[in-house]
Amino acid sequence: MLKLRPNCECCDKDLPPDSIEARICSFECTFCSSCADEKLHGRCPNCGGELVARPRRPAGKLEKYPASTERVLKPAGCGQPG
């Protein structure tokens, strides 16, 4: 099950579970659409994988299967994918 991390790893923008701006790679590294498109050009800086739109969990399922509250942030921001 996806963790649905609450923020962008680059800029720390809040990304609630219903956000249409969240992008993830296959390892669930999470970025906002602006950072994913403009800074990272659609590639994860951690693994080099493709960043795609994160699926949204139906609101009725969030109570039983809540989103993660653990924030992940790269102190130096995001560089180019490696």
SS-based class? little secondary structure
CATH class annotation: Alpha Beta
Shape: globular
The domain tally reads 1
Beta-strand content: 5-15%
Please name the CATH architecture: 2-Layer Sandwich
Taken in chain order, the helices and strands follow as EEHEH
Distance between the termini: 26 Å
Oligomer: single chain
Write out the strand line-up for the largest beta sheet, numbering strands in chain order. Answer: 2-1-3
Biggest sheet character? 3 strands, antiparallel
Q: How confident overall, as mean pLDDT? A: 93
Examine the coordinates and then state which fold CATH places here, giving the name of the CATH topology.
Herpes Virus-1
Per DSSP, the total helix count is 2
Total beta-strand segments: 3
Task: Outline the low-pLDDT stretches.
Answer: none
Radius of gyration: 12 Å
Protein name: DUF1272 domain-containing protein
InterPro entries: DUF1272
Pfam families: DUF1272
Organism: Azohydromonas caseinilytica
